[in-house]
Amino acid sequence: MNKLRRDVLKYLPLPLLCAPLIAIHAAATAASRQAQPPIKLALVESLSGPFANTGEAVFRNLLWATERVNARGGVQLPEGRRELAIVRYDSKGQNEEALSALRAAIDDGARIIMQGNSSATAAALLDAIDKHNSRDPARRVLYLNYSAVDPALTNERCSFWHFRFDAHADMRMAALMEVIKEDKAVHSAYLIGQDYSFGQAVLREARRQLALQRPDVRIVGDELHPVGRVKDFAPYAAKIQQSGAQAVITGNWGNDLMLLVKAAREAGYEGRFYTFYGNALGAPAALGEAGVGKVLAVADWLPNVPTPESRAFYQSFRQRFPRSQDDYVHMRMQLMIEALAQSLEKAESTDTVAVARAMEHAQVQLAGRSGAMRAADHQFQQSLVVGMMGKQGSPGVDFDVEGSGYGFKVVREIAAAKAEMPSMCRMKRY
């Protein structure tokens, strides 16, 4: 019987002999690919302290974006499909804590670092990442920035390892000026901001652009205040009221914006607020009826962008996060994760240099919005919108913010080509 078996095997074709082994190998390879570990994305952000609400808002956006990528199977790489996984690191609103979080994230195996809610922290991280990547090439990391908008970060401080997905402060100010230059009711303006690199940049650019586009507007106030430490903005509101300014221009964000606008309302101020983040957490509710027709905000996108794609996108986010206090969605963060997924697949690798080279040419779109990375300075180029605060249900305000009953009607859209600004970046390339 054994001889017969040997004789039969002797005359079987080699493919048939190997078929069981090939099947076993294929099954093992498939199982191996399915078991690939996720790609870690380290979120370094304020998750406690006075700006914890902004950090949590970021996390919800990025979580939703990664869930969308993972729902379609994750990122396709040669070794198989890999999902994206966010690991949270609390900076507590302090640069030293952020640097400690960066070191912990690298030690934990993360090669993608995400941060944005402070340009001062962004600068500290960028410096540390540049040094780390030179010192430890085997563990190089990329830095994806979704909100830190100090123009220097993609100009004199630009880096091959840093990619910014928000419009920088000068771009945002230029968009606001498109509306201010036509607002003939404004004859004087009060400039106020947070006393760090970003706040200083906003006021500097406000002065420059007012001189160019509205030289008839007098600046009747120009001051900076400590970041995150002012609990009572009544003295600032009183000065704004006494100045007689028809408009306030501010880059304030987080509690510093919410408390400022609330104090101004209580002081009886009736002028307009031209803001970078007037649509942000807490601000519309704090302003209430007094903000209708008076508060303007510039953004990469607003929920009331009048397209079916935009409407469906916003409604989908609200289905995922139905609580009113969780209502703050950022289109740019969604596009950032899409750009990362695209770049990983084009690089066919998680190698930091390969992904960075692919990301330099990323072009992404979602829900009718699109953007492209500019390789020269790693500044994302996208259209911007300016919105005017209005009551929900009024023309152009289908959606409110955080259940406040107030939202933002789009009054101006600035095409990406017009929002683009020159750069003085001279980065070292790899």
Description:
The protein is α/β, with parallel strands linked by helices. It folds into three domains: 2-34; 39-167 and 315-382, Rossmann fold, CATH 3.40.50.2300; 170-299 and 383-418, Response regulator (Rossmann fold). It has 14 helices and 17 strands. It has helices at 2-11, 14-34, 52-71, 95-107, 119-135, 169-180, 197-213, 234-243, 255-266, 283-287, 308-320, 331-347, 352-359, 416-419; strands spanning 39-45, 75-77, 80-82, 84-90, 112-115, 142-145, 162-164, 188-194, 218-225, 247-250, 272-275, 295-299, 363-366, 369-374, 379-382, 384-391, 406-414. The strands form four sheets. Strands 9-8-10-11-12-16-17 form a seven-stranded mixed β-sheet, sandwiched between helices. It has a five-stranded parallel β-sheet with strand order 4-1-5-6-7, sandwiched between helices. A three-stranded antiparallel β-sheet has the order 13-14-15. Helix 3 (52-71) crosses helix 12 and helix 12 packs across helix 13. The radius of gyration is 25 Å and the shape is globular. Residues 1-33 have low confidence and may be disordered.
